[in-house]
Amino acid sequence: MTSLRASVLLLLLTACASTPPVPSSSTDETVLAEDVRVRRIAPGLWVHVTSAGKEWGQWAGTPANGLIVEDGDASILVDTGWNPRQAEALLTWARDTLHHPVRAAVVTHFHEDRTGGIPALDAQGIPVHALEDTARRAAAQGKPVPGQRLSDAQDFGPLSVFFPGAGHAPDNLIVFHPASGVLYGGCFVKDAAAKDLGNLGDADVTAWPSSLQRARQHYPDARVIVPGHGLLGGPELLGHTEALLREAPPAASR
What is the pTM of this model? Predict the structure, then answer.
């Protein structure tokens, strides 16, 4: 079976309209805890996967993706896991094993699978960046609040961040790594196995299709897509999300 590393490199080297999903593999995976693991997907780029605990009820066990991105002799954390313990495990691994300690973080919207680890970063004086709307919504719901602000479109070290418009949440950012062609769609993009749009509590399914089109236009060179949950794929994940939106009940619109 082709290794994960070989598969991802093939994805990055093949500029085609639709890229096959990256297969699951443990080739480059490191388990940090029962509910925390990391996996290298491209040079200088790692996906971290954290799982929700029993306190999350129906969402217990749900894995959430994020990124660790090497930036010189440091790294950037994109999304912080469900809780501070998971974030602490990621920070320790980046410092002691990767030898690229986290210097900053980005959270892509206000839900706690993105912001739950913020207290661990605050405790170490690591700045956490997000949209103003994300901070406002997190504060209003008593969730951890990122302390630094991002604009709707800006470079952030080796990354580009962009707010395409409302979708899964009113404030969902996406993050592009130009060096590898990897686009982190977060919960704005569904994985290929998804049969529905998941949690629509804060979604805007009316705006979501236009937001997806803006994402395509802003990052036309994206060749690998990392969804917020589930396996990596190619640009077809954007089309899959659009198809799910066409099937969404009108009551899901806000």
Answer: 0.88
